[in-house]
Amino acid sequence: MAMAFHPLAASRVRLAPLLPGAAAAPSPASVAAHHHHHRRRFSAIVATAAASATTEFDFKSYMGSRAEAVNRALDAAIPAGEDPVSLHEAMRYALLAGGKRVRPALCLAACGVAGGREAWALAPAAAVEMVHTMSLVHDDLPCMDDDDLRRGKPTCHVVYGEPIAVLAGDALLSLAFHHMASVGSYPPDVDPDKHPARVVRAIGELARCIGSEGLVAGQVVDLEMTGTSEIVPLERLEYIHLHKTAALLEASVVIGAIIGGATDEQIERLRKYARSIGLLFQVVDDILDVTKSSEELGKTAGKDLASDKTTYPKLLGLDKSREFAEKLLSDAKEQLAGFDKEKAAPLLHLAYYIAHRQN
Amino acid sequence: MAMAFHPLAASRVRLAPLLPGAAAAPSPASVAAHHHHHRRRFSAIVATAAASATTEFDFKSYMGSRAEAVNRALDAAIPAGEDPVSLHEAMRYALLAGGKRVRPALCLAACGVAGGREAWALAPAAAVEMVHTMSLVHDDLPCMDDDDLRRGKPTCHVVYGEPIAVLAGDALLSLAFHHMASVGSYPPDVDPDKHPARVVRAIGELARCIGSEGLVAGQVVDLEMTGTSEIVPLERLEYIHLHKTAALLEASVVIGAIIGGATDEQIERLRKYARSIGLLFQVVDDILDVTKSSEELGKTAGKDLASDKTTYPKLLGLDKSREFAEKLLSDAKEQLAGFDKEKAAPLLHLAYYIAHRQN
């Protein structure tokens, strides 16, 4: 494997203590190979992260408790059994299908680092997950990516039909804004009656990241590129990822920071942090695509590069892609330097998680 | 024709001066029959409106100037030729296809009656039209109502394809909220920095009327009813109309009133006004469906009642439907009684227009 030659490979020994529970549980049969692979693949990224490896922070328990709180908020936001039943069922099916709730966690963590109580940002955290789910439901439609499975379950339109899937997406999108604008979604000390300016600003951020400057723009260009046999140029690949992935991660962080009472200068630093981890998220996705295929199919990485989908490894090669990921993680960390170390720990470890995740 | 026997038919002489320019221009060949038909058909409704027939108010010029202002705002809200070009083109195609801009006019007029300058509500007025357009684009999709034509032009998915139509709808929906939340969309004396609480409340109203309590709920139940050969019960028909049509008219009025600085008591009166004209809008639509068919096909109204679509005339008969429309117009007028007569003139004449329109 090419990565064994990476100059920073020696630093891999610090990986295990850094990421308690961040990797999904692999099947027993694949544990050994997986672990070996895991330690090597992210060695470059880990080099820059190693300095913080001593921080005491239980990432697994942080993510677990936040996901639980967000899931409760999402569950309460959509009535079960109320008219129209099929619509509410479809919304709940898509929204409560599990998932790691990375975007809500970013939102809550950013609220905390800005000096707020994380609970202030529970409504926006639920809202960003609603928006994320809407984009998945619409992107999975037969006329789009035509996906039948999502997280191992049949997709929304497979279960409820296309019309309900389109409409459930629309309803989730509007519910996100309703949730953001409702006094009842917030603790009393930060509700829209007390801090309307924060709420308006946060709503504007959320709205911007969805449409023709965000998720939708990314999906449009992705669809345009899918039809052709041409290689997507790097600039276009970055456009897709910045819009389809990074925009909502950026909004999640910025919205949390706004609700938490961040200054403009803090918001801009957190925005830069979020852009870096947003692109990092996608670069890692691309690396996983290639290296996972190598494992599963017993093919060399070089063969995967010949597949149809344009990825960072395909355009840059695997080593340069890892270096790029390393650079993005380092950029993200840099933006957190000025914040209180303890308060910034969740955002720091979310960045590590995004860099090191296995799926 | 049955309506000639209506007890209030004699009042029809007052119709012409009441509605300058409200009816769409008919083809020369149909003018005589149309006019005759027109005068008779709405005689019942006009009876209650006749008392205000002397009001000086140039409805045609009011609607023309407001539509122009709203069209300018909509045109400015979506860049032409910017990346992704196909998406922006599709959004502009759907949004700038003409139409009477009834919802924006209601929004502006409600801002005025609440004591605001109408220009304050230009951003929300544009936003409600974006939401309306989104609902048309998605409802027209092949998997929904499968409509190829809208206002005499090919529908969005026919021109740009299904994926872009779905995504253009999503982008219009998020743009509506972005527009509502942006300082630059408002005159400086009422922008979100000055009146954030008004803007948050208005955004909450807009969001609520779209999803599972509004447009989407109405479309879901409408789709459910379309498949069956059963007659839709009156309660279900009203559910569809209150959600699919009235909810956005209500939001248009209430949002305008909120931005205009209305008191809670004023907002509730205007909300009742809007609910009445919202349902009126649909009852009149149903009456037009039946009576237009009668004319065009030379069939009696009774024969049209046998058609598949459940309408108010089908459930109540034509006379009772007209009485219901009359009652709704009268209810709407009643809610305007406490407001300054001159400031309330646009909303009053919008109610007349909705009652008397020909398409």
TrEMBL record, chains A, B:
User: What cofactor does this chain's UniProt record say it requires?
Assistant: Mg(2+)
Q: Gene3D superfamilies, from UniProt?
A: Farnesyl Diphosphate Synthase
Q: What keywords would UniProt list here?
A: Isoprene biosynthesis, Magnesium, Metal-binding, Transferase
Q: Which GO terms describe its cellular component?
A: cytoplasm
One term of GO molecular function: geranylgeranyl diphosphate synthase activity
Q: One Pfam family for this entry, by name?
A: polyprenyl_synt
Keyword flag Transferase: yes
PROSITE patterns, alphabetically? POLYPRENYL_SYNTHASE_1, POLYPRENYL_SYNTHASE_2
Q: Would the keyword rRNA processing be found if you checked this record's keyword annotation?
A: no
Could you tell me the superkingdom of the organism this chain comes from? Answer: Eukaryota
Pathway it works in: Isoprenoid biosynthesis
Q: Which SUPFAM superfamilies match?
A: Terpenoid synthases
Q: Which GO terms describe its biological process?
A: isoprenoid biosynthetic process
Q: Which family does it belong to?
A: Belongs to the FPP/GGPP synthase family.
**Could you tell me what this protein is called?**
Geranylgeranyl pyrophosphate synthase
Q: Which organism is it from?
A: Setaria viridis
